[in-house]
Amino acid sequence: MSNKTLCITEELYEYMLSVSLREPDVLRELRDETRQDENANMQISPEQGQFMGLLVKMLGARRTLDIGVYTGYSSLCIGLALPKDGKVIACDDNREWTDMAKRYWQMAGVADKIELYLGPAQQTLESLLGKGPDSFDFAFIDADKMNYDMYYEYCLQLIRPGGLIAIDNVLWGGAVADASINDDDTVAIRALNRKIHKDPRVEISLVPIADGLALARKI
Ligand code: SAM
Ligand code: CA
């Protein structure tokens, strides 16, 4: 037995899913179709989607942000967890991937809860901020890593006190802990991890689910 986070084997991972994953058919079908795409590893894992859905419900969230949509899995997990009058503002700049996302949101019956803003996420966040701060309960950051810090700062303004920002890929396949790896994405994620660690504006936990999910609750 160990009190340290386990380095999970394929066998243990399959076991974990077999006793905990409750993935609706529409999400599984979305994963199946996304698998045909060469960028499929950008999609969040099903257990992470389920975890985020639980967080959204625990927060009693109504207004949420999904920064980085791809084929729509994270937006759909959030949308399914929201009450009838909930909203996901989904930000992405790729029409092809988000057309597929919209098809699945429709199939899942939550298209009315998910509003896609097609374009650079910075522009969308700037326009949302123009409508007022503290107006969201939950945000998921999963777009271009070089702009993570900027998205984090926007989210801190857009989220209400007590709301939650979840930041994906903060362990970046382990590269963040390898001093010999210094490409732009790794350096950006490493810097943001250090900044969040010391940031008095939030309470935090780094959850080693999938590729690492940082949770920051706005104080
Ligand atoms: N959360 C998604 C899911 O669950 O499948 C995965 C998101 S994927 C890792 C990153 C997405 O960010 C891509 O779909 C890409 O088009 C989008 N993206 C990258 N840079 C962007 C930018 N500057 N503005 C808006 N979207 C961007
Ligand atoms: Ca990701």
Characteristic key phrases:
219 residues; globular; 42% helix; binds calcium ion; Rossmann fold; 7-stranded mixed sheet; binds S-adenosylmethionine; 20% strand; single chain
SSE layout and pairings?
Blueprint: H1 10-20, H2 25-34, H3 46-59, E1 63-67, H4 73-81, E2 87-92, H5 95-107, E3 114-118, H6 121-130, E4 136-141, H7 148-158, E5 159-168, H8 184-198, E6 202-207, E7 213-218
Parallel strand pairs: 1-2, 1-4, 2-3, 4-5
Antiparallel strand pairs: 5-7, 6-7
Helix pairs in contact: 3-4, 6-7
S-adenosylmethionine binds at residues 42-44, 68-71, 73-74, 91-94, 97, 120-121, 142-144.
Q: What would you say this structure looks like, in words?
A:
Helices cover 42% and strands 20% of the residues. By secondary structure, the protein is of the alpha/beta class. It has a single domain, classed as Rossmann fold, CATH 3.40.50.150. Strand 4, helix 7 (148-158) and strand 5 form a beta-alpha-beta unit. Helix 3 (46-59) packs parallel to helix 4 and helix 6 (121-130) packs parallel to helix 7 (148-158). The chain binds S-adenosylmethionine and calcium ion. The site of S-adenosylmethionine has 19 residues, from helix 4 and strand 2. Residues 42-44, 68-71, 73-74, 91-94, 97, 120-121, 142-144 line the site of S-adenosylmethionine (SAM).
